[in-house]
Write a structure and sequence with these properties.
transmembrane helix; mainly alpha; AAT family amino acid transporter; 14 helices; two-stranded antiparallel sheet; globular; 2 strands
Length: about 375
């Protein structure tokens, strides 16, 4: 029997997970992406493109399909299989779009200047983060659960039926910002604003669906009304978060750096937002979504403030220290270097793979998790 931590050990368990995830994140970065140490020469693209598609695979397999086909495997084989499948999928999709579709449509071509062909294909994933994550954390697999379906029918139904709205969002909002055929000014939003605003919607989805246990949308009543409320509410809350994260980014970066960034500052709600999402993922899965005992509103407030505080500190540490001096990323303006949408998404992928895919393999489980996993005496009374 594995050693059990004491009852206050959720902190210890969470911190140990963060240490392991950071160690893997930095080691993988130096091997695969670092402009100075990696032999692959794939920074920032196509590395970021493959990374985004790998994240979408984890969403599909881990969220929509609930690890169907993987869950029966023992650890660490399960984690290794999920990680290998995610990496292969990410590389395959990047290659198919850049070399396959790119051969007939120059928008996606690998040879496009600045790696924009890779980025054009990978931009689809941004919209997938909203539709496919929302279907799980805000809709709770509505309406497929209500039809009596189980896995993998639930997951495949979500993946198939949500593909159309995801493609529509990509074609209407995303593709015009990067397409060679789009006349100047024809896109509804410029690329920087689109990234900043739409990623703020993703932040709203994760905040309400994961950290706040689907509050306030669950107050709508029925599952159908809850799903509808989450769509409308995410648009409102996400837009408000865009302006709040934009103002916060300006304050954290400083007035002179904000001036030097110019219109690019409108992308920074996404840069700060990805730090927040990464910490929300870690907080919910490694720290047990604490606190849970202070009463509903206080629990939600503390979780939000704790993760946002970690995100703001990470944002500052990344842009003013880590990106240039530890990760060897090129400068942007003044003392600012790097792009958090690359490294912090890499951190988030490693966190999901280790904490969820590997189930924190090798770490002693906290007492409450061990107690919850113990078999009950009467399964008829405790299904």
């Amino acid at each position: 029997m594995s050693r059990t931590l004491n009852r206050s050990s959720w902190w210890t368990f969470g911190i140990l997970n963060v240490v392991v995830v950071l160690a893997i994140t930095f080691a993988g970065w130096y091997l695969l992406a670092d402009p100075s140490t990696s032999p692959l020469d794939v920074y920032p693209l196509p590395f970021n493109a493959a990374l985004f598609w790998a994240l979408l695979f984890v969403v599909w397999s881990g969220f929509n399909l609930e690890l169907f086909g993987f869950a029966s495997l023992p650890q660490p084989r399960r984690g290794l299989t999920v990680a290998a499948a995610a990496i292969v999928f990410g590389i395959a999709m990047t290659w198919l779009l850049s070399e396959g579709l790119g051969a007939v449509n120059p928008d996606f071509a690998a040879a496009r200047e600045g790696g924009l062909g890779y980025f054009t294909g990978a931009l689809f994933v941004l919209f997938g983060f909203s539709t496919y994550v929302m279907a799980v954390v805000n809709w709770d697999h509505w309406p497929w659960r209500d039809l009596g379906l189980g896995q993998p029918q639930v997951g495949w139904s979500e993946i198939a039926f949500l593909m159309l709205p995801t493609i529509l969002l990509y074609v209407v909002l995303g593709l015009p910002t990067l397409s060679l055929a789009s006349p100047p000014g024809s896109a509804l939003l410029d690329l920087d604003t689109l990234l900043g605003w739409y990623y703020s919607l993703v932040v709203a989805i994760v905040l309400t669906g994961v950290l706040w246990e689907n509050w306030p949308w669950r107050l709508a009543g029925s599952r159908a009304r809850t799903a509808a409320a989450s769509v409308v509410g995410t648009l409102v809350l996400g837009t408000a978060l865009y302006f709040a994260l934009l103002a916060t980014s300006k304050a954290l970066l400083g007035g002179e750096n904000t001036r030097l960034l110019g219109d690019a500052i409108h992308q920074f709600p996404a840069q700060l937002g990805v730090c927040w999402v990464a910490w929300m993922i870690v907080w919910a899965n490694a720290f047990g979504n604490k606190p849970t005992h202070l009463g509903g509103p206080v629990n939600l407030l503390v979780r939000g403030l704790a993760t946002f505080g970690l995100a703001a500190a990470t944002f500052v540490a990344y842009y003013f220290l880590a990106a240039e001096h530890l990760l060897h990323e090129p400068p942007v303006v003044g003392p600012i270097a790097g792009n958090a949408l690359g490294f912090m998404d890499w951190f988030a992928l490693v966190a999901l793979l280790y904490i969820v895919g590997f189930e924190s393999f090798g770490l002693p489980k906290p007492a409450e998790a061990t107690k919850a996993a113990e078999p009950v005496a009467d399964p008829a009374v405790h299904p």
